[in-house]
């Protein structure tokens, strides 16, 4: 049994790769059909199972936060609950409302789930062969395709012919479009250092620079994290499906497996946005102590596949940590209102993203090698790539934390001072002053009329 | 009930044809707290008009009252405001006692106060949980239910029922307190402050909570009085009116406690008022337990209750506001007329006044802040 497992895990990938390398007669099939098909199937299987278990995890995490147990009945500790849920959803009656636009109603969840699953292709799950498609515009591809997902929600809202769905769809389209801008702007700072859009290229950039970009780009990471919450419609930005206002928002009229498709889209969007955050800001599959030939000092390990699996584990662990944070937020915070959400997006996230780009650009130009017109010369050229020196790393971290964040914060607070919802304190004082003037005219204790008439 | 049709804007006059959307919220809706139907007229998401359609839970309790004997009516009162059954009972039972001019033993009065204040805490906890959930903070609900459960357990052991507790009898109590009653209530009072702190950590300084509640649904004091609001909804607007102080009933004159009032009359102030009331209720219970006298718990009341001809109005401070009973006796064993003053019903009037100009999400928050129970609105 162990032999078979070891063969499958360690020998098979190398064998398929060696076939392609040695250019045997069937190399074309192996390289362009067999191997991609295996990768696609494995990733889809793993991600969809993961999605099912993320729902389980969400229920467990929320339960533990709320002093309950969560699912406990199906299997040990309720571990088979996702399976039961899946079967239930498959067997449920598929209702299409008579007044709904049938074609649009059917297409909507498909658009949503396809957009969410396609982007999984360029996610770098691990080193070497675990990166399925190393596209040189990977990040752009993710941003572009995930914005198609909003189309599914709009179609669902329109096609359902229900007012709650329509309101939900309007909210989600406005929200996702505005938060996408903030999301796009927030990663540009990190891209300046990486100088590539390829997902594995960005991770490699962090390896060469010797630091995770979250330390160079704390503000960018913050803006990205908030925008990602908005982009995936997660709490506290879950207005499109706010159950206490819109019943279920755009999927109010959906049932059975069509509804499950929306659910899958939401959770795989969570995985993708977390994967992008891990790739761009948190060093991807890198972890201190894990190198190509050793694991935390053990080694040297000759088999490169060991490193690949270690990298997959690291990447998955980082994603899960972010997803846990998502769940943590959801079960702690109340929900924003629609106009407040828009204000946060347009008045805070987008200006912060823009300012971050400008300031990072200035720090970057100043740090260029003196030969290229820089002032400090905190960078040197290695293999036609600019890498910060030891002092350069400290310089970038200090500028980011000590200069960029206070400047941007001060700027935004000044700009938004007159804004309606972000100076609650002054607003309250003004109101209470008005109230007090009115109250002075009034009796504090209302005299009470005699209460019994009969005796 | 039915909204007037507005003339549709003439497309000739404006560049684009626009019309307001009428959204039917409820009676089956997650956050209308039962079977309230709210008809909203929306311009985008802004509410331009609002109407409440009530009566889906109408059972005719007032009419039933004319057919039952005085003792038989009490359980129906449990089902008015079914999350504060004990408070309702107190109102009715005291109303009948006032008619009969019965002197209730001191011990019974004190136990009544303890149970009623426990019920106020339970009701406010349920309100806090559902209100926070309407605004999106789900976890608070579960925390509140954890403490409410403790109160319901105390009720269960005392009365035999958890929700529709038929707690009091005309003339006093049916049973004396069970032996561990005092220690169990004291244990609950010991854990309560820490738990209230927990909720306040989650909400009080939470920026999103502030943005969702501060300045939402402002009711100035004079408007609150003109709408005849009572309870926390009125006190949130800064009017210091509480029946427990204004017209002390039962044993409330014996206890020292504060009446918290708000400043701005917005949703946040009503929240703060209710949180403070929870703490004040605990103070009252503490005093009542300390001074719990010995003695009988039942006054001498005839088996068949026949009050003298006349009428009486009695009101008490229920968790939702001032609940009142107006009884007319024709000298027989059944009331000639029973009229209920339901605080939820009267407070609900202010929803339209508060909602117009706000967004859909705020309407949900405002229904929550009024703390209505449809069993009482519809009777």
Task: Briefly say what this structure is.
The complex is a heterodimer of chains A (455) and B (379). Helix content of chain A is 65%, strand content 2%.
Structural description of this entry:
The complex is a heterodimer of chains A (about 450) and B (about 375). By secondary structure, chain A is mainly alpha-helical. Chain A has two domains: about 1-75; about 90-295 and about 305-355, no CATH class. Chain A is about 65% helix and about 0% strand. A two-stranded antiparallel sheet of chain A has the order 1-2. Chain B is of the alpha+beta class and about 375 residues long. Chain B has one domain (about 60-380): Cytochrome-c3 Hydrogenase, chain B, CATH 1.10.645.10. Helices cover about 45% and strands about 10% of the residues of chain B. Chain B is built from 15 helices and six strands. Chain B has a three-stranded antiparallel β-sheet. The longest helix of chain B has 30 residues, at about 105-135. Chain B is globular and about 75 Å long. Mean pLDDT of chain B is about 85; it is low at about 5-10. The chains are: A mainly alpha (about 450), B alpha+beta (about 375). Chains A and B meet through helix 7, helix 12, helix 15 and helix 17 of A and strand 1, helix 4, helix 5, helix 7 and helix 8 of B.
